[in-house]
Design goal:
It is a single-pass membrane protein. The chain has 219 residues and is α+β, with helices and mostly antiparallel strands. The chain has one domain. It contains 5 helices and 9 strands, in the order αββββββααβββαα. The longest helix is centred in the first third of the chain and has 48 residues.
C-alpha cells in the first residue's frame, strides 16, 4: 500500500470520526429538551401519585444559602416538589432518594407529610436489580405498607432525623422508623432505606423551616 493511499485512508477515517462526533452532539442537543420535558412530566406524575390527594404540584429548589426558589432550568440545589389539593392546601412535599443496590442505583421519590413528620408514600422510579427480586420492592404489598407511615421526625435541634431510617430483617420491625425488609430482596430493601435516610437527613432540616413559604405558594 502506498503512502498516499495510507494518508487518504487516515484522512477519510478522521473525517468519518469527526462527522460521527458532530452528528452525535447535534442529535443530543436536538433531543435534550424533549428528554428533559419527558423527565419533568414523569416526575410530576410520580409526585401526584405519592402525595395522597394531591391534584396540583409545584417544583422548588432550595439553594446553597437555604433559600426557597421556584425551580427554573439550570438551577442548582435541592429539588423539592410540593403537592396541593384542589383548594390549594399543601398536603405534602416530595423529594428524591438514591442508593446503590446489588447491580445499580435504586432511585425513589418519596412523600413527606409535615402533619405527622413522616414519609407517607414511596415510588421506585429506577432500579436495575435482579428481575423477580428487586422488583418486589415495587409489587410486594407488605413492603409497600412500610411507607404508609414511616417516621421521619427531626431531632430537637432540627439538624437531623431523631432516628435514622433503617431496613431490618423481615419480621423483626419494632420501631416506626424501621423498614421491614423483603426476604430474598434484602439488598434492594436496604438500598431503599439507605436512599430515604440519606435524602431525609439532608433535605428535611432544610425543608421544614421553609414549610410556611411552601404553604403560601400558589400551585
Amino acid at each position: 500500500m502506498s503512502s498516499k493511499t495510507s494518508m487518504a485512508m487516515v484522512a477519510t477515517l478522521g473525517f468519518v470520526t469527526a462527522l460521527s462526533g458532530f452528528l452525535i452532539v447535534t442529535v443530543f442537543q436536538a433531543t435534550k429538551p424533549a428528554i428533559e420535558e419527558n423527565k419533568r412530566l414523569a416526575i410530576q406524575q410520580t409526585v401526584l401519585e405519592v402525595i395522597t390527594g394531591a391534584t396540583a404540584d409545584k417544583h422548588f429548589i432550595i439553594n446553597g444559602q437555604g433559600e426557597l426558589l421556584e425551580a427554573a432550568p439550570g438551577m442548582k440545589g435541592v429539588n423539592v416538589y410540593a403537592g396541593y389539593d384542589a383548594q390549594g392546601k399543601l398536603l405534602g412535599v416530595a423529594a428524591e432518594g438514591s442508593a446503590q443496590g446489588y447491580s445499580g442505583s435504586v432511585d425513589t421519590i418519596y412523600a413527606y407529610t409535615p402533619a405527622c413528620g413522616c414519609i407517607t408514600g414511596v415510588k421506585v422510579i429506577k432500579q436495575t436489580e435482579t428481575p423477580g427480586l428487586g422488583d418486589k420492592t415495587i409489587t410486594d404489598k407488605a413492603f409497600v405498607a412500610n411507607f404508609e407511615h414511616l417516621e421521619a421526625k427531626l431531632d430537637a435541634a432540627g439538624k437531623a432525623l431523631a432516628n435514622a431510617i433503617v431496613a431490618v430483617k423481615h419480621g423483626s420491625k419494632q420501631h416506626p422508623w424501621e423498614i421491614d425488609a423483603i426476604s430474598g430482596a434484602t439488598i434492594s430493601s436496604k438500598a431503599i432505606a439507605k436512599g430515604l435516610n440519606g435524602s431525609a437527613q439532608d433535605v428535611l432540616p432544610k425543608l421544614v423551616p421553609l414549610l410556611s413559604k411552601i404553604e403560601g405558594a400558589k400551585p
